[in-house]
Amino acid sequence: MLTLAIDIGGTKLAAALVDERRQIKERHTLPTPASQTPAALREALKTLILPFTGRMQRVAVASTGIIRHGVLSALNPDNLGGLAQFPLIDTLTQLTGLPCLAVNDAQAAAWAEYRALTDNVQDMAFITVSTGVGGGIISQGRLLTGTQGLAGHMGHTLADPNGPRCGCGRKGCVEAVASGRAIAANATDDLKGMDAKAIYALSVNGHPQAIRLIEQSAQAIARLIADLKASYDCQRVMLGGSVGLAPGYLSRVERYLAQEPATFHTPIIAAHYQHDAGLLGAALLSEDDFL
């Protein structure tokens, strides 16, 4: 059975056919609509899935934001261009005529990464550091989503009470310090106006402010991991996202985590599925009849 897996991100929409062996057979991508109005997102999804018409038996979507009763909303509206309430499942069911599952993208990625493990791990966390900071929690072999879909939104835990205001309304969230959007927003002087990718490249070349911004990000993620270890004794943390998978970033996080007391240490591993974790996780959850 082929599943059409869709990944809705802050900058990119992706769709792929996934078979029972977790193999991606074909994929298409589009930029996330700049306006991100409900009409614009619906049209973009229609265009995205058109090449797959008649070739899939079910649809599974992983999206940034919170999924409640099939409706997409954003904890940090900046990551979805202000899109407030979008009937995600109803829209995709109307467009495809097929049953659809929808889940947060980091929760989906966490499930894919958990299913890829070969050893006896029952408690695992997945953290994505990308446009925002998201995550998924596996506890006793089960994915936690919460009654309102909020479980795993660890980017909105506290990093610095005196830090910048986050788009969610809180002050000093991990996302407001560590995310790609935050790295760019917190840049000043000659780095002002650059995106996180350019700033990261400059940090590799020794630019002092760029190094400071990346180090702040890595330190915030390390503290988050220590908090997760204290919260539910996770055995492993998988790190993903465009920032999280950037060369040298994981080792920075490990260095800061090593400065915490040993009780709060846990192994950190790069995401097995890299940037496909959300797509594959959504397909696997659909296959497992998760919802």
Automatic annotation (TrEMBL):
CDD domains: ASKHA_NBD_ROK_EcNanK-like (cd24069). This is N-acetylmannosamine kinase. It comes from Kluyvera intermedia (Enterobacter intermedius). Homodimer. One of its GO terms (biological process) is N-acetylneuraminate catabolic process. It comes from the Bacteria. Catalyzes the phosphorylation of N-acetylmannosamine (ManNAc) to ManNAc-6-P. Its EC number is 2.7.1.60. GO terms for molecular function: ATP binding; N-acylmannosamine kinase activity; zinc ion binding. Pathway: Amino-sugar metabolism; N-acetylneuraminate degradation; D-fructose 6-phosphate from N-acetylneuraminate: step 2/5.
